TrEMBL record:
EC code(s) of this entry: 2.7.1.17
Domain Carbohydrate kinase FGGY C-terminal span(s) in chain numbering: 258-451
UniProt protein name: Xylulose kinase
Described purpose of this protein according to its UniProt entry: Catalyzes the phosphorylation of D-xylulose to D-xylulose 5-phosphate.
Organism: Candidatus Enterocloster excrementigallinarum
Recorded name of the encoding gene: xylB
Catalysed conversion reaction: D-xylulose + ATP = D-xylulose 5-phosphate + ADP + H(+)
């Protein structure tokens, strides 16, 4: 039997999954690590934590399965996008990684606009300068930590640091590189014009591959530590959402998915380049060679519910721990006991600023309409609805761009909630489907590894062979009408508070 491994370097944990060639999960392991917030709006992680988690979980899945490393044809990598990993001449980490949700780089995005006009950024990178993306973070280190930048010899993204650990190769691939704002997205290669404008040496960046191309093989010391073979190939892989698209079969025009993980994403496949002139959604290369995707991002989707759980649901956590239960099952039951609209309570999910549609690092979370009748259950439902309103904003922009979605898939931790999927279906006005396969990014990364290793002919043929529908939720007309009204008010609230957010940021 042939096997494949998908590794997903997430914000809360690294998850490694071993699949057989039919896409069946054989073994799975994950390892959590902390997120550090040295200041308000900052977010960092230690790349060393990702390294330890990857090596540990690879070894665990191979041991769990009781297979030989020679049977693993390939490894695919998926991971959180936009993070900045800086290595010195010896390949050692210089400073903690500034990750995707960090919002410290407002001044640097202004600097980027002084160096190149907005129109040029859109033409080359398909997106305006963004606070959470990698280029601005590189400039921040140059401006604020010049001693660290002077030592830097390699700049990598989170999953590409794990590639270096596994193979010794400094490389990336087009989907993840698109989120650095250093890539010529139409041309799928580094942009000399952008690099020159930002005074970044191209030699700091790895070679760019397509997602299913082989980038290297497992190092002997990693083989010894994990049980893999030195003949096992490692392919380009993909950013977390591009990998999830492959893992959910979103590989053709007319197909899209919504994921609710730490962040939330509405992601649509496109066989040609499409741009939002306002820059509210992001256009990137996708993991299917020669194609692109358009995605809108909610910064704090699952993070909002996780935050509320951790701060205000301690009794639920204790009950779940005692009974060996999933705390989110209890949360969903409470939220489902409240009617659509949460009895006039609206939540704005801006815990980490916001990307789509506002591109505002200063906005923050709000409960609007809170009254004495509201209970914790109301607040839980309002959090889920607020995230859904934000994701609906993303979907409406896709419609404006002429992207017609006939198949909306759901994935990520939030997609396990039938209640949350119903909210999305009601707001989108279309069915929301799930697959029998639930591993999303890890499965997508493994499929890419299968193509690169020659196990599958193409991404499309692999998805056709492996993926199968599991559930389908249809919109409920009465709830659609309720959510239309609440969504309109939700959209007005940001406009009303925009200047207040700026004042708050300056206090």
């Amino acid at each position: 039997m042939n096997y494949l491994i998908g590794i997903d370097i997430g914000t809360s944990a690294t998850k490694t999954v071993l699949f057989d060639e039919n896409g069946t999960v054989i073994a799975s392991a994950s390892r959590e690590y902390p997120l550090y917030q040295p200041e308000n709006g900052w977010a960092e992680q230690r790349p060393q934590d990702w390294r330890e988690a990857a090596i540990d979980t690879i070894g665990r899945v191979i041991r769990q399965a009781g297979i030989s490393g020679n049977e693993v044809r390939g490894v695919g990598l998926s991971g959180q996008m936009h993070g900045l990993v800086m290595l010195d001449e010896a390949g050692e980490v210089i400073r903690p990684s500034i990750i995707w949700c960090d919002q410290r780089t407002g001044a640097e995005t202004e600097e980027m606009l002084r160096r190149l006009p907005r129109e040029k950024w859109m033409e080359i990178t398909a997106n305006p300068p963004l606070t959470g993306w990698t280029a601005a973070k590189i400039l921040w280190v140059k401006n604020h930590e010049p001693e660290h930048y002077a030592r830097c010899r390699h700049i990598l993204l989170p999953k590409d640091y794990i590639r270096y650990v596994l193979t010794g190769q400094f490389a990336t691939e087009v989907s993840d590189a698109s989120g650095m704002q250093l890539l010529d997205v139409p041309g799928r290669s580094w942009s000399r014009e952008v690099l020159n404008a930002l005074e970044i040496d191209e030699n700091l960046l790895g070679r760019v591959y397509e997602s299913c191309e082989v980038t290297g093989k497992i190092l002997p010391e990693i083989a010894a530590a994990t049980g893999l073979s030195t003949d096992t190939v490692v392919v380009g892989g993909a950013g977390d959402n591009a990998a999830a698209a492959v893992g959910t079969g979103v590989i053709r025009d007319g197909m899209a998915f919504t994921t609710i993980g730490t962040s939330g994403v509405v992601f649509a496949h496109s066989s040609r380049m499409r741009l939002d002139p306002a820059g509210r959604v992001h256009t990137c290369c996708c993991a299917v060679p020669g194609a692109w995707h358009v995605m809108g991002v909610t910064q704090a989707a699952g993070l909002s519910l996780q935050w509320f759980r951790n701060q205000f649901c301690q009794d639920y956590l204790e009950e779940a721990a005692r009974g060996g239960l999933d705390v989110y099952q209890r949360i969903n039951e409470d939220a489902a006991s409240v009617p659509a609209g949460s009895d006039r309570l609206i939540y704005l999910p801006y815990l980490m600023g916001e990307r789509t549609p506002h591109l505002d690092p200063d906005c923050r979370g709000v409960f609007f309409g809170l009254s004495a009748i509201h209970t914790r259950a109301h607040m839980l439902r309002a959090v889920m609805e607020g995230v859904s309103y934000s994701l609906c904003d993303c979907n409406e922009i896709l419609k404006e761009m002429g992207i017609s979605v006939s198949h909306m898939m759901a994935c990520g931790g939030g997609a396990r909630s039938p209640l949350w999927r119903q909210m999305l279906s009601d707001l989108y006005g279309c069915p929301v489907e799930t697959l029998k396969q639930s591993e999303g990014p890890a499965l997508g990364a493994a499929i890419l590894a299968g193509v690169g290793s020659g196990l599958y002919e193409s991404v499309e043929s692999a998805c056709g062979r492996i993926l199968a529908e599991d559930s389908r939720i249809e919109p409920v007309q009465e709830e659609m009408e309720v959510y239309k009204r609440y969504h309109k008010l939700y959209q007005k609230l940001y406009t009303s508070l925009k200047e207040n957010y700026k004042e708050l940021a300056e206090l």
